[in-house]
């Protein structure tokens, strides 16, 4: 029964989180670094944003294995395939024809998207399933370079930000807001779902 709860938290959390990711992209004030890179690759090469999420995930699994000098975390494939599929679902079925409005509307959409990302991530993390490769990349940098989590996260974001800028991805003020605000939103919701999971597993 505990596994079922964890699985439901995993799927529901990612379903909600990816909705928030798509909302931040559609707010058109600047996406998160990795999302901006995926959007840029979609514009230049083709394929869907979700497909690029999966391709980037596959590359990062190999990079993480090299950095950590261990076998690739193949179970992470499940996570990035689910994330990529859900992003394509939301972009095609909900956000396909959505157009940006005034700055206040865009800012509201961005902040709402961030809150939804934090809400969904707080649920998905309770499952304690394999992390998505971007999160693992941050942890690999932390361990390999012996830096703290904040520095590792910054390095990880810059790795995506540079090619996103070169490819003229959607980088803007929203990118900065997302970089610094996602963590606090996750921290806001995390304790509630942690307690809920503990009650369900008791």
UniProtKB/TrEMBL annotation:
Keywords: Membrane, Transmembrane, Transmembrane helix
Keyword Membrane assigned: yes
UniProt KW Membrane keyword: yes
Domain of life assignment: Bacteria
Pfam families from the UniProt entry: DUF6198
Protein name from the UniProt record: Membrane protein YczE
Membrane-spanning intervals of the chain: 7-29, 49-67, 74-91, 103-125, 145-165, 171-193
């Amino acid at each position: 029964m505990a596994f079922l709860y964890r699985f439901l938290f995993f799927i529901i959390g990612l379903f909600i989180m990816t909705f928030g990711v798509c909302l931040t992209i559609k707010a058109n004030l600047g996406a998160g670094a990795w999302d901006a890179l995926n959007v840029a690759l979609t514009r230049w090469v083709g394929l869907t944003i979700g497909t690029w999420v999966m391709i980037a995930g596959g590359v990062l699994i190999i990079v993480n294995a090299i950095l950590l000098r261990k076998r690739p975390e193949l179970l992470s494939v499940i996570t990035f395939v689910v994330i990529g599929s859900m992003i394509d679902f939301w972009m095609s079925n909900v956000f396909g024809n959505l157009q940006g409005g005034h700055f206040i509307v865009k800012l509201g959409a961005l902040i709402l998207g961030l809150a939804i990302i934090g809400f969904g991530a707080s649920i998905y993390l309770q499952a304690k399933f394999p992390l998505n490769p971007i999160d693992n990349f941050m942890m690999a940098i932390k361990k390999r370079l012996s830096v703290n989590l904040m520095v590792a996260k910054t390095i990880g974001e810059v790795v995506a930000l540079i090619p996103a800028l070169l490819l003229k991805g959607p980088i803007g003020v929203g990118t900065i807001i997302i970089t610094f605000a996602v963590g606090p939103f996750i921290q806001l919701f995390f304790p509630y779902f942690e307690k809920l999971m503990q009650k369900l597993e008791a």
